[in-house]
């Protein structure tokens, strides 16, 4: 591993650690305040600058070290040359191919659903128009006549 890669790895780890500690601190402050508020201590449940500063003070050296490494990397021009190039990962390419296939399938399914819904709506509209037009009685009368002829009653 070259010095440049080691520098970038340490910088990335420090940034991730600081981000994780800040997120944990925010959740801790919120959970502590919510518990105190549920207990009835409304004054303690308020999030003040002093409470936040008391929690952030132990993280400050780590944050400053991470910031210093970032500034040093900017000044020295240390950067990952492959950062702008896309990753050539076969697993990722297969996953993207499946996502594209699923998108095409969903689009075809959506078109089919739209066509089926349109056909159903047109059918319902035509049935309602036929009922309002008086066609229901005509169909019923013809149906009765055909059935009675078949059975031999008419």
Q: What can you tell me about this protein's structure?
A:
- This protein is mainly α and 154 residues long.
- The protein has 2 domains: 3-85; 92-151.
- The chain contains 5 helices and no strands.
- The chain has helices at residues 3-39, 49-56, 60-76, 90-133, 135-151.
- α1 (3-39) packs antiparallel against α2 and α1 (3-39) packs antiparallel against α3.
- The chain is elongated.
- The N and C termini lie far apart (100 Å).
- The model has no long low-confidence stretch (mean pLDDT 83).
Major beta-sheet overview: none
Oligomeric state of shown chains: single chain
Task: Provide the gyration radius in Å.
Answer: 36 Å
Estimated helix fraction: over 70%
Q: Residue-averaged pLDDT, rounded?
A: 83
Number of helices: 5
Give short descriptive properties of this protein:
mainly alpha, 2 domains
């Amino acid at each position: 591993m070259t010095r440049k890669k080691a520098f970038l790895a340490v910088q990335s780890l420090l940034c991730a650690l600081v981000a994780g500690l800040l997120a944990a601190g925010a959740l801790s402050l919120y959970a502590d305040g919510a518990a105190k508020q549920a207990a009835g201590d409304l004054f303690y449940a308020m999030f003040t600058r002093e409470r936040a500063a008391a929690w952030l003070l132990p993280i400050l050296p780590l944050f400053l070290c991470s910031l210093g490494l970032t500034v040093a990397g900017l000044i020295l021009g240390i950067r990952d040359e492959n950062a702008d190039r896309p990753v050539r990962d076969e697993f990722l390419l297969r996953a993207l191919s499946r996502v594209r296939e699923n998108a095409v399938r969903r689009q075809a399914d959506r078109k089919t659903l739209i066509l089926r819904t349109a056909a159903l709506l047109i059918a319902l509209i035509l049935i309602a128009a036929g009922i309002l037009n008086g066609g229901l009685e005509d169909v019923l009368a013809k149906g009765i006549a055909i059935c009675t002829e078949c059975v031999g009653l008419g």
